[in-house]
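hey
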């Protein structure tokens, strides 16, 4: 391996350390309390080293968001869409929940950590694309008559927020903190409840 390749590998490794440490700190301590110096201390580097990779804290946050939402998008697109749009929505909901439960720190950072980076999402941002996949599936369900007529964005947001609520509870609450132990099929039942709410024929089973 030449000098250039070794330096590039070291640069990538340092950037990875910075991102991982920052995510953990944001989740544990909150966006406002974490400084670039605090992140540098966590990986035993100087603050100057952090600024060689990121302009400021907001730049670092945006990099984390793009990376994490890119992983979510990949998880949602891993399986080919079924022909049945209802089954597609079901598949997306399960993939979303599986990503959240397998990557709780990533999920907390993405959706459950107060942040305020000044950034207007672009249509090509992974977060926008992730929602776009669900939106496309919902639009297809309406077009085929599987879903009743309604606002595509609203229906997609309801489906998303209901699954988010279930996984957020599973991530944040210990089983002994629930009024009753969480149902093993909580995610699936949440998805099914959302589907029934918008089916053109609620009694129909997909």
């Amino acid at each position: 391996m030449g000098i250039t390749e070794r330096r590039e590998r070291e640069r990538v490794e340092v950037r990875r350390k910075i991102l991982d440490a920052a995510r953990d700190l944001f989740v544990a301590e909150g966006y406002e309390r974490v400084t670039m110096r605090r992140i540098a201390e966590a990986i035993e580097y100087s603050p100057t080293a952090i600024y060689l990779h990121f302009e400021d804290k907001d730049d670092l946050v945006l990099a984390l968001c793009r990376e994490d939402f890119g992983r979510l998008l990949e998880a949602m697109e891993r399986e080919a869409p079924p022909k049945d749009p209802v089954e597609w929505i079901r598949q997306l909901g399960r993939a979303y929940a599986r990503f959240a439960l397998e990557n709780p720190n990533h999920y907390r950072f993405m959706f459950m950590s107060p942040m305020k980076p000044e950034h207007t999402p672009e249509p090509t941002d992974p977060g926008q694309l992730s929602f776009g996949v669900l939106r496309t599936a919902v639009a297809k369900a309406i077009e085929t008559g599987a879903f009743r007529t309604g606002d595509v964005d609203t229906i997609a947001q309801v489906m998303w927020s209901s699954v988010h609520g279930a996984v957020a509870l599973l991530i944040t609450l210990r089983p002994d903190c629930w009024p009753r132990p969480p149902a093993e099929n909580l995610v699936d039942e949440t998805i099914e409840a959302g589907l029934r709410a918008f089916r053109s024929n609620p009694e129909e089973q997909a």
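The chain is about 65% helix and 0% strand. The radius of gyration is 20 Å.
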